[in-house]
Specification:
153 residues; mainly alpha; two-stranded antiparallel ribbon
């Protein structure tokens, strides 16, 4: 299985479990890791680092690294609360600059993925044309094969 790190571009240690935000991550993409952490903390601020790590499919070390980078930049702050009488827990809350960073990262991520999607569409169209030209596959056969694949989805 590919982890979020593999799909979002993280270049630090990675986990092998896919997570809810795993579609964001590709190797070498630290922005995707920050966005995934910010999104997860927006939805579940009481996640522990371990639970966050598992949810995102990141190693615990990578999660710690990204989370502390966000804390150091003032984009996330920690609030203590009591989970039980004997144990303190933390809630990670996005600051106004964290919310702005999440917005900025989301816009960049979408722009990058839309550009990749357009390139992929061009490549697919070129490959279909190549099939038609080089292998004398009738246009209807190429279209039917495409429709059959779409129907399976």
């Amino acid at each position: 299985m590919c982890s979020m790190v593999e799909r979002s571009g993280l270049d630090r240690p990675r986990g092998d479990a896919p997570g809810a935000a795993s579609a964001l991550a590709l190797p070498g993409d630290g922005e995707a890791a920050r966005l995934a952490v910010l999104r997860a903390l927006t939805q579940q601020p009481h996640l522990s680092q371990r639970a966050l790590s598992e949810a995102l499919g990141l190693s615990l070390g990578k999660t710690h690294y990204v989370l502390h980078a966000l804390l150091d930049k003032g984009q996330v702050k920690v609030r203590n609360f009591r989970r039980s009488e004997k144990k303190l827990s933390y809630a990670y809350v996005l600051t106004p600059s964290g919310i702005a960073e999440k917005f900025r990262l989301t816009m960049r991520f979408l722009a990058r993925k839309e550009a990749e999607f357009e390139e992929l569409q061009k490549t697919i169209a070129a490959l279909r044309l190549e099939l038609l030209r080089e292998h004398a596959v009738p246009a209807s056969a190429a279209g039917e094969a495409h429709q059959a694949r779409e129907a399976k989805r």
